[in-house]
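Quiz preparation item.
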């Protein structure tokens, strides 16, 4: 016996090497198309089962049965295919689940659907809630079955639990999410026809349709309880199924469930046999070809679509029904908010309002792009987006306030600097309109260039008011101070010409200026009319030319220049007359009339 076993093994190996590949000849059996990885956390494709599907050139429809482990899914599929347990899907009687991953019956059932020849495959899925698996793995199986199938049979025992609704809701949302990631968020998800199959021993009382309808009704929540609100959100997420669901009840086939595979139809409960035939007709009536983006898929297209969805499922980080979607998205929100904070922290405040708004919008766009790439769930995403926008708006308002504060501090400093500058120009030793205008222009330009942000408008008004007031005050005092300066200058030049230089022309000119300012103007002009007289304008122009120019600021150099002039006069007074005699400068005062050399008159 052992020798014949090894002979068979060697023969198979030799045939494999001779042909170069192992092709499937008998498709009348079950094949795995999706298998779990060793860690039972992700899924991978099985080429053996895919080959059974790829050979189909007609449109494909898939009927998948999903439900808890040990709920009789494999037995139910064999019944729908009219196969025994020894021919069809493997049925396990032990406590661990028999089916691993997703299996397909290799021979499709050919049907004519609305005049189109369609190949219907039946899919058996690994039951959820078994030991040694993560919730994420169960959710991937459920979601993948939801995306692949044309008819999704949700096989439940006895009744509908809240956990069953939550799991279905999550699977539909998961399928919708990753369908969108593959086909684009703008492509509508086309859910499978959902069949609630309730296997129960009692058939009296409420119908399964009423049971499903009541289970999916909103729970009243007048007190705003968060837990009830979450329960209703789960029901809202099933809205995509719309009226695309139906319900059916099926009694238990026999009390001795471990012997079902050895029983013929005549030994099963007659009510079960009758309802089983009705179930076959119901499934056949709701089967439609698998439609993706408006067109049916053949074998190769179906496999390609399956590969894309599976890659998205395995690549994408997804939550599980054991961890609320909001909790999963909370981490995404924190990362997005951190990105926004980091972007806004790079700003060099203050900025003008438009620049800040544009930077905020660019940052918001980048943050929302990150959120769209990483968030989970379209329905849950709406609430998460609102929360993200609310948190970002808080940060944005803080940045706006900081910008206003920085702008106010900067403009206040510039305003104070200009105010001090204007005060300094008001008390020039030698008043100069040109110097005041230069300082006025410089102050105004520096304020316009350096003061930025929302506070600028307010400070511009203050600045214009302050500068206008300073200018009016300076002009008012300028003529009076210049008049007084000229009077004082004429008296000083009288003393200089009389006693220091002893230059009579200087003294005469000084006296003429003094008499003109103090006598003639008081007799013929008022002080105000003097300032509008062309003669006064000539005097002012001469004064401005002497006092201030871009090259020489006499106000700054008045004291050094005065000292130099005094030294020069002193030097000339002591040494100049001895060297050059009395004829060096004419006419001079002659003080020798009463000297010892004067000739006698007698």
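Solution:
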């Amino acid at each position: 016996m052992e020798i014949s076993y090894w002979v068979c093994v060697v023969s198979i190996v030799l045939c494999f090497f001779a042909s170069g590949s192992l092709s499937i000849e008998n498709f009348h059996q079950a094949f795995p198309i999706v298998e779990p990885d060793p860690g039972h956390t992700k899924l991978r494709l099985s080429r053996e089962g895919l080959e059974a599907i790829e050979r189909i050139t007609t449109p494909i429809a898939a009927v998948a049965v999903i439900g808890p482990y040990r709920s009789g899914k494999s037995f139910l599929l064999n019944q729908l295919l009219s196969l025994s347990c020894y021919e069809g899907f493997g049925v396990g009687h032990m406590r661990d689940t028999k089916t691993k991953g997703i299996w397909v019956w290799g021979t499709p059932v050919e049907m004519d659907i609305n005049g189109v020849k369609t190949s219907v495959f039946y899919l058996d899925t690994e039951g959820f809630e078994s030991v040694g698996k993560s919730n994420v793995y169960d959710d991937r199986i459920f979601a993948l079955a939801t995306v692949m199938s044309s008819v999704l049979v949700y096989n439940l025992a006895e009744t509908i639990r809240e956990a069953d609704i939550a799991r279905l809701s999550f699977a539909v949302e998961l399928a919708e999410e990753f369908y969108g990631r593959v086909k684009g968020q703008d492509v509508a998800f086309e859910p499978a026809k959902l069949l609630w199959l309730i296997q129960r021993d009692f058939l009296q009382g409420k119908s399964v349709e009423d049971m499903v309808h009541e289970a999916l009704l909103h729970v009243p929540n007048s007190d705003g309880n968060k837990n009830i609100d979450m329960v209703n959100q789960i029901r809202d997420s099933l809205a995509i199924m719309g009226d695309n669901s139906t319900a059916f009840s099926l009694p238990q086939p026999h009390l001795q469930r471990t012997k079902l595979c050895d029983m013929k139809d005549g030994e099963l409960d007659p009510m079960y046999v009758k309802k089983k035939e009705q179930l076959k007709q119901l499934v056949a009536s709701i089967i439609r070809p698998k439609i993706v983006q408006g067109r049916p898929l053949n074998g190769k297209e179906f496999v390609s679509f399956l590969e894309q969805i599976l890659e998205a499922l395995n690549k994408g980080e997804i939550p599980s029904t054991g961890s609320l979607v909001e909790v999963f998205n909370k981490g995404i929100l924190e990362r997005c908010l951190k990105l926004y904070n980091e972007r806004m922290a790079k700003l060099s405040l203050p900025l003008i309002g438009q620049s800040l708004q544009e930077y905020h919008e660019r940052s918001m766009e980048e943050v929302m792009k990150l959120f769209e790439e990483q968030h989970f769930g379209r329905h849950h995403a709406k609430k998460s987006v609102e929360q993200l926008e609310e948190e970002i708006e808080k940060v944005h308002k803080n940045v706006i306030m900081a910008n206003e504060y920085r702008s106010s501090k900067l403009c206040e400093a510039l305003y104070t600097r200009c105010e001090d500058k204007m005060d300094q120009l008001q008390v020039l030793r030698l008043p100069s309109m040109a110097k005041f205008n230069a300082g006025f222009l410089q102050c105004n330009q520096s304020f316009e260039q350096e003061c930025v942000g929302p506070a600028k408008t307010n400070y511009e008004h203050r600045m214009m008011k302050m500068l206008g007031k300073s200018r009016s005050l300076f002009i008012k005092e300028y003529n009076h101070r210049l008049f007084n300066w000229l009077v004082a200058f004429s008296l000083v030049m009288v003393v200089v010409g009389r006693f220091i230089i002893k230059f009579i022309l200087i003294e005469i000119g000084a006296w003429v200026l003094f008499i003109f300012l103090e006598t003639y103007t008081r007799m013929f002009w008022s002080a105000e009319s003097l300032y509008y007289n062309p003669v006064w304008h000539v005097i002012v122009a001469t004064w401005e030319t002497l006092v201030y120019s871009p090259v020489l600021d006499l106000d700054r150099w008045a004291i050094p220049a005065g000292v130099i002039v005094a030294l020069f006069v002193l030097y000339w007074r002591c040494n100049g007359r001895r060297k050059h005699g009395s004829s060096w400068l004419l006419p001079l005062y002659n003080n020798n009339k009463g000297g010892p050399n004067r000739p006698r008159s007698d």
